[in-house]
Write a structure and sequence with these properties.
The protein is mostly helical. 82% of the residues lie in helices and 1% in strands. β1 (165-167) and β2 (170-172) form a beta hairpin.
Length: 409
Amino acid sequence: MSQTETKQRASWDLMIGLAMGHAVKHFYQQAFLLLIPSFKAAMGLTDVQVGLFGTARTISSSIMNMPAGIIADLWRSKVGLILAASLTSLALGYLIIGLSNVYWIVLLGVAVTGLGTSMWHAPAFGTLGAIYPDRRATAMAVHRTGGSIGDSISPIVMGLLLGGIAFWGLEWSGLNWRVLALILVAPALLSALAVLIFYGKAMGVEGASGTQDIAAYLRSARGLLRNATVVSMVTLTSVRAMAHNGLNIFLIVYMDEDLGFSTFKIGYHIALLTLFGVGSAPILGWLSDKMGRRPIIFVGLSAISLLVASLLLFGEGLPFALVLAFLGVFLYSINPVMLATAIDAVPRGTEASVTALMFTGPAIFGAISPIIAGRLRELYGMDGVFLYSALIVGIVALASLLVPMRRVS
């Protein structure tokens, strides 16, 4: 094998390896959603209290986004440590959740999982943005595909483990939610160890060469908040997150309480929201690399808005499942394209910091949204949540036609 072929092979190994870690991270992120009906029933929670779970997770994630991004930009060879810490935090969060039936302590555990999820994005996406400048959206879309695989598998597995199974005379009632949370601790710790061992090997020379001095970094980073494209993408992503955060949590509650779905049935319906994103994310990323970012972003956001609005008419039965499946084509897949747009506009060496901004903004804006959605559901039912989410994404879609999207040559 030639030196060029070896380098390309190592490059693909890195991209795929990071995507696998992203799948694990998203498995745990999505698993939390399937635990919500159990939380609510066991502790007699209101919809607003359920919304606070989403708020706690997004607020805690905003705390670590920027520090993780800055560290990853300054010492790229240490990114493996940050990613291992991300998975370790998920393990700690589930340990806290599993050891308590007290609302405020469970809320603390959820917040710790938020710290874990935030420590992954900036180092991983930022590193990909730096290593693959000519295939930026494609690389990020492959990484997003890993997340979609974890998102799709998690609700089905969790639905089976929580709801049990009855098949050919074999009946199993499932696991208690606290027991399941404790079981999930060990795989997260083992994954953290695997990332720590193998990530540095995969990075090789690329990681070592990514280190820069603080003065050079500050000179590059100073203009990020004055960069019109970065500010635009952060703003659009943040407002969009308000819709996503509210819808994500209360779809689970809606299927549990209003539609009367079993835990397993909830699981595979939630899996539909990400299953088709496994294939669509790389396609949208590739198209945006070839055709430009703006048309892909506008079409994706418009489709999300229309599909969420259609839930007002098709909120149950087979049409409901089909809408969720079509929504899954765009719901997560458009994020890598928006992130690539922001990274396109900044100088090399600040990719992870831009990624941190792109996740910090949504964490801040999205923190209050689950509480708003919870109150809307209490007042107007699930139609209020659907309308709220659809309108917000529709506004963001129209704004995407007007905002600047410039690329640093």
